[in-house]
Design brief:
seven-stranded mixed sheet; two-stranded antiparallel sheet; single chain; alpha/beta; 11 strands
Length: 260
């Protein structure tokens, strides 16, 4: 058996706990580039979803599909995430594979069971251990309040439900577990509910923009990444975002309210 394992190691092969031969993992950055080249189909579109998406002007056929974030996002992951980092995301897909390859351990929260199974299969094919990811198959608005990681996260990516107020809810709960100096990214900042929340982050100044992934080739798509500057509670008076007056409101209390 030892000779057999040595042979497999020499030829770039591994073996899982069931004795199945599997490919040995390449360096994390090479895995990210492979992911970009192969574009695995980790999502699936139902007949109903295909129908309404087509009616909205986004023609798509039912079945497996690749809904990948742009290569620029995955390559930024490779720049920002260290092998000692703990990472978390809402949503799942190729971002999950990349973060699993790059980080010490990754936590993925998604309602997409098909994507979880397809992601695990692809990870096995390219040699990423299953143990590097904890999947929580549950909506983020119920899963994140129960989240109790043993250590704070170094990197987070919000790419789950984009309907209001999920981007803000995901940030609210993840922020509690994100290190000062950690990085959080928001996918699809062109969507109003996401854009409104990043406006809060920029005006509140407890986070600083460190990477803007948007360019003409991506059309209207954007992903913004912020570094956390300070821990802050949710008291309205402590938030710089609230240190503004809305014209016409409470004019008789101008000298009492702390907002300017």
């Amino acid at each position: 058996m030892n000779l057999l394992r040595a042979f497999r190691s020499f030829h770039g092969l591994g073996v899982d706990t069931n004795g199945k031969v599997q490919e040995a993992a390449a360096p994390p950055t090479e895995l990210v580039e492979r992911l970009i080249r192969e574009l695995p189909k980790l999502h699936a579109v139902s007949q109903d979803d295909a129908r309404w998406l087509t009616e909205l002007g986004f023609p798509v056929e039912a079945g497996p599909v690749s809904w990948a974030v742009p290569p620029q996002v995955l390559r930024y992951f490779a720049e920002a995430v260290k092998p000692t980092d703990l990472t978390v995301e809402t949503g799942a897909g190729q971002s999950t594979v990349a973060l699993a390859a790059l980080a010490k351990h990754h936590t993925c929260i998604t309602i997409d069971r098909y994507c979880v199974d397809a992601t695990l299969l692809y990870m096995e094919q390219i040699g990423i251990p299953r143990s590097k990811v904890t999947f929580v198959v549950e909506s983020s608005d119920t899963a994140l309040p129960k989240l109790a990681p043993p250590e704070k996260f170094d990197f987070a990516y919000i790419d789950g439900e984009h309907g209001y107020p999920f981007a803000a809810l995901d940030w609210h709960f993840i922020d509690k577990h994100l290190k000062v100096g950690g990085i959080i990214g928001f996918d699809n900042v062109e969507v109003p509910s996401v854009h409104n929340h990043i406006e809060f982050l920029e005006l509140n100044r407890t986070y600083r923009l460190v990477k803007n992934v948007s360019e003409p080739s991506l059309q209207c798509y954007g992903a913004y990444f912020y570094t956390k500057l300070v821990d802050q509670d949710r008291n309205s008076g402590s938030q710089l975002y609230n240190h503004r007056r809305v014209p016409g409101f409470f004019p008789q209390e101008n000298s009492v309210w702390p907002w300017t």
